[in-house]
Every structure is written in C-alpha cells, then in structure tokens.
C-alpha cells in the first residue's frame, strides 16, 4: 500500500512522460504490489481499438521505463463514456485458507453458474464487497496513509548508534 502522496507523485510521473496526444485526460493511476494501472479518457473521435493501436508504441516505451524504475508491471486502460476497458492487466494468484462454511459459499456460486470455479467465485465476492463498500474502503485507505505518515515521522529505532542515541544496557559507571 502506498501513501496518497506517493500515489500523486506516481500520477505526476506518468503525466509528465505520456505524450500529449495519448489520452484526452488522465483518469487514474492505481498501484499495488505487483502492478500499476494507468487509465485515461479516449479521444471522442476514436474507438478503443483505434486508440490501442495508435498509442501502442508510446505506451510500451513509457511502460518499460516505469517497470524498470518501480519494479512493477504496467497495465493500460481507457475510459469511453461510462465504460472502462483494460489492456493486458495481471491476474495474480492469491493463497487463502477457508473454513467449510466459506467454501460452501464459493461452491454454491459455482453450482449456480455465477462462477466457473472457486477462484472465480472468490474474485466475484471481492468485486461485490468492493462495489458495496467503496466509502468504507476509502476511509480505511486514508487511515492507512495517515499511519504510514506517522511512522515515517517517528524515531529511528534501527539501533545504528547515531549521535544522541542512548544505550539502556550501559550502566552509569561506564
């Protein structure tokens, strides 16, 4: 999880490097441990397919630089009206342990044709929670940002023995 400040710096980095004619406007830059997803508005006179072909080389060039710098894959997407389309984004496996009652929920979704597998059913559940708790998740992310800021301002506890540090193990007679 990155802070809001780090997220803004990342957004600015992409905004500076993307040629002016790639997106009509930059909508979002989202990051997690594995991937950075950049989404912008497709020009009004262009289809998603046309945009993808026209900007491919430019996006690849920026992605290579970003992947080297940030050590994450870069995915691209466009917003056209209310529709968002992502290009070649990651689907990362996640390990979890579930009790029988939780597995039964997934199995019911599979049996009901909502999902093809337990993995699909779990992804469906995560999307459902995300959609229905956006405000709460946003508050939680903001709180995590604040925790990271406070930690960064805290004392150096690395034990490097810098000037001014005291070692509680030393006796007064030393």
Describe the structure.
This protein is 48% helix and 16% strand. By secondary structure, the protein is of the alpha+beta class. It has a four-stranded mixed sheet with strand order 1-2-3-4. Helix 3 (100-111) crosses helix 4. The chain is globular, with a radius of gyration of 23 Å. Mean pLDDT is 86; it is low at 162-174.
Write a concise synopsis of the structure shown:
This protein has 174 residues and is of the alpha+beta class. Helix content is 48%, strand content 16%. The chain has helices at 4-17, 48-70, 100-111, 118-132, 134-153; strands at residues 25-31, 35-41, 73-80, 83-87.
Q: Kindly state the percentage of residues in helix.
A: 40-55%
Give the radius of gyration.
23 Å
Q: Could you list the spans in which at least 5 consecutive residues all have pLDDT below 50?
A: 162-174
Structural class estimated from helices and strands = alpha+beta
Strand order of the largest sheet: 1-2-3-4
* Shape verdict: globular
Count helical runs.
Answer: 5
Characterize the largest beta sheet: strand count, sense, and whether it forms a barrel. 4 strands, mixed
Query: How large a portion of the residues is in β-strands, by DSSP E?
Result: 15-25%
């Amino acid at each position: 999880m990155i802070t809001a400040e780090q997220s803004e710096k990342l957004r600015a980095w992409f905004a500076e490097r993307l040629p002016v004619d790639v997106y009509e406007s930059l909508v979002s830059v989202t990051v997690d441990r594995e991937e950075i997803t950049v989404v912008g508005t497709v020009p009004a006179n262009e289809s998603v397919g046309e945009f993808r072909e026209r900007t491919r080389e430019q996006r690849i060039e920026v992605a290579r630089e970003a992947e080297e710098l940030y050590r994450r894959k870069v995915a691209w997407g466009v917003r056209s009206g209310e529709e968002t389309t992502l290009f070649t984004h990651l689907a990362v496996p996640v390990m979890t342990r579930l009790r029988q009652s939780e597995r039964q929920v997934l199995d019911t979704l599979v049996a009901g044709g909502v999902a093809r597998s337990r993995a699909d059913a779990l992804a469906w559940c995560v999307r459902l929670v995300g959609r229905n708790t956006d405000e709460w998740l946003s508050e939680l992310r903001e709180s995590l940002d604040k925790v990271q800021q406070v930690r960064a301002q805290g004392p150096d506890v690395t034990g490097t023995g810098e000037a001014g540090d005291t070692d509680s193990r030393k006796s007064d007679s030393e």
